[in-house]
Design brief:
By secondary structure, the chain is of the alpha/beta class. The protein contains eight helices and eleven strands. The strands form two sheets. The protein has a six-stranded parallel sheet, sandwiched between helices. A five-stranded antiparallel sheet has the order 7-8-11-9-10, with no helix packed on it. Strand 7 (about 140) and strand 8 (about 145-150) form a beta hairpin.
Length: about 210
């Protein structure tokens, strides 16, 4: 059964999110107070509904209780965002995400029940930073707020040396968790085996220590 998602607020972020979810197979209800926006997205979502998103009665008429997830995408309208989050939680929506324009707004929406706060501008900047880093790193994965997992090629000066000689933890503050060479990833690491041209390292480190790998 397709996931049921309601996106409330069809600005640039909300519209793109609703259309992308629909393209990926979700049943999407797009909601906005602007009839022109509703008309323009109607063919790209499952349902497009015009509603006063600042009115509790109007929001309750949307049957949000049938949704698996509700995304409140109005980062610039605190009143409508608060009302939408409150109603969604009151009717029993299991997971509510809310866009916030700043951290103060995010704190308010979190206090009234939002399960996750979205900061699209910050996240866009983070994605851009990662795309720039991909010139240096083969893969980059977030683990949590302060840790990341990288797949990297050894620096030219590392080739021919082993992990004991390199002392990567001491010099670069990174922990090697696996080594890949000859297309084989191995979690058992021989610290005295010299690194080769085709060697790749899977490492964990604090995001604040990425600068040491430049």
């Amino acid at each position: 059964m397709a996931k049921q998602v309601a996106v409330i607020g069809l600005g640039r972020f909300g519209r793109k999110l609703a259309e992308s979810l629909y393209e990926m197979g979700a049943d999407v209800m797009a909601v906005d107070k602007n009839p022109e926006l509703i008309a323009s997205i109607a063919d790209n979502v499952t349902y497009a509904v015009e509603a006063d998103v600042a009115s509790a009665d109007s929001l309750k008429g949307l049957d949000l209780q049938n949704m698996d997830t509700v995304v409140v995408a109005m980062g610039s309208d605190l009143t409508a965002s608060v009302m939408s989050v409150m109603v969604a939680k009151e009717v029993g929506v299991p997971y509510v995400m809310a866009k916030a324009s700043d951290h103060r707004m995010g704190q308010i929406l979190s206090k009234i029940g939002a399960d996750k706060i979205l900061y699209p501008e910050e996240e866009s900047g983070h994605r851009t930073a990662k795309s720039i880093l991909m010139d240096t790193f083969l893969e980059y994965f977030d683990i949590d707020d302060n840790l990341c997992l990288l797949e990297i090629k050894p620096k030219p000066e590392w080739i021919g040396k082993n992990l004991v000689e390199l002392d990567l933890r001491g010099k670069y503050r990174i922990n090697v968790v696996a080594v890949k060479d000859h297309s084989e990833m191995r979690s058992f690491i021989d610290p005295e085996r010299p690194l080769e041209d085709d060697t790749e390292l899977l490492v964990i480190l604090e995001k604040s220590d990425l600068k040491y790998l430049k």
